Amino acid sequence: MLLVTGARLGDMRGYRRMFIVGLVVFTAASLWCGLAPNAGTLIAGRLVQGVGAALMVPQVLTGIQLNFTGPARGRAFAYYALSLAGGAVAGQVLGGVLLWADLFGADWRPLFLINVPIGAILLVAALRYLPVDHIDDRGPAKKLDLGGVVAILAAILLLVVPLVMGREQGWPAWAFAALAASVPALVLFVAVERRVAARGGYPLLNLQIMTWPRIAWGLVAQMAVQSSYFAVLFTLALYLQQGLGHSPLYSGLALLSWVIAFGVAGFGVRRVPKRWSPLTPATGYLFLALVYVLLSVATGLGVHNGVLLMTLLGLGGAGLGTGFNSMIAHLTASLPGRYAPDFSGIHSTVLQVAGTLGVAVWGTFYLSEAPDGGRDPATHAFSVVCAALAASAFVAAVAAYRSTHAREITEEPPAGERTARRQTVARADRSG
Question: What gap in Å lies between CA 319 and CA 288, rounded to an integer?
Answer without folding.
Answer: 5
